[in-house]
Design goal:
single chain, globular
């Protein structure tokens, strides 16, 4: 059964943008929210939208419990897709940012969870491969693998998971990896931009995982809506597990760019403030086990993304 009203947080970001787009494509009533006063996504609001009354976009600071309560009272959602988050992994390592990171990813999620439970809404929350320590080479299982974050960002997302599990009776936690989408910055856009000014690039070759295209993820989310198959899922596009260097090579080949890749270890690269897990392989089998269609191969996803980029439909380069 489709929800009567969906509240999507973080619609000015990559995932929130695509969830909003997919919900509208399916004819669902969806209200987007963000911390800014106005909508800044690249998806136009419907003609005649009234942001002030929350018809299509409403301002909401998830760290403000009272404001969250007021928005939920106005929108009355029976589904919340909680995409808003602190996602600057290296920035999270700055000591002056730590409190803010947890205020967004833990306290903000706590506020969403409380308000959702109060109005009987189910919640989608998005976590990360960074909650694991990256040891070994076996894919992480959503129900059996034990989290052990290496960095502040991973710690904060795990804290958000725990708040949701503590406070909500109906939740989906989707742990995702290597995200790229139309609205905002990501690795694919960075590689395309750098290819215009560089003949060669040093790229890490010992961190292994799979990309996740937000347009494909949004379709899975809306497929899950209306089911009672709650729990924790690991999600990425299907296909072989790869390194960042492998991903870059495919980006350049698929886009016709001539850039030499110098493959280096994480230690040789030595730029990142935050420790990154070397093993980001996610076991996505639970998706099909619960009757959902898995995401397409990541190479197919990349080519569709690049086709949109070539047509001028992508911003945030």
């Amino acid at each position: 059964m489709n929800p009567r009203s969906i509240l999507i947080t973080g619609v000015n970001g990559q995932l929130g943008y695509d969830v909003l787009k997919e919900a509208r494509a399916r004819g669902l009533h969806a209200v987007g929210s963000g911390s800014s006063e106005k909508y800044h996504g690249i998806l136009p609001l419907p003609e005649g939208s009234d942001a002030d009354c929350g018809k299509d976009y409403i301002q909401m600071d998830i760290t403000d419990e009272k404001q969250v309560e007021d928005v939920f009272s106005k929108v009355k959602p029976d589904l919340v897709v909680h995409c808003a988050a602190w996602t600057n992994v290296d920035g999270a390592e700055d000591p002056e940012n730590r409190e803010k990171v947890f205020r967004v990813n833990e306290t903000g999620t706590e506020n969403i969870a409380k308000a959702a439970e109060k109005c009987g809404a189910s919640v989608f929350f998005f976590s990360t491969d960074y909650i694991f320590d990256g040891q070994g080479n076996r894919p992480w299982n959503p129900d059996l693998s034990v989290p052990k974050p290496l960095n502040v960002y991973g710690e904060s997302k795990l804290a958000g998971e725990n708040k949701l599990k503590e406070l909500c009776s109906r939740y989906f936690i989707l742990r995702i990896s290597w995200v790229f989408g139309r609205n905002g910055g990501n690795f694919v856009k960075t590689m395309l931009r750098l290819s215009e000014t560089h003949d060669s690039l040093r790229i890490v070759d010992d961190q292994i995982g799979r990309p996740t295209y937000t347009a494909d993820l949004a379709r899975l989310i809306l497929d899950m809506v209306g089911t009672d198959r709650y729990g924790i899922y690991h999600v990425s596009n299907e296909g072989e597990y790869i390194s960042w260097a492998d991903f870059a090579a495919e980006i350049f080949q698929a886009s016709g760019k001539k850039v030499r890749i110098d493959r280096v270890s994480t230690e040789e690269y030595g730029v990142s403030k935050a420790a990154r897990p070397k093993n980001s392989r996610l076991d996505t089998s639970k998706i099909t086990e619960n009757g959902f269609e898995p995401l397409p191969d990541w190479k197919d996803a990349l080519r569709r993304f690049l086709a949109d980029e070539a047509s001028g439909e992508i911003k945030g380069m």
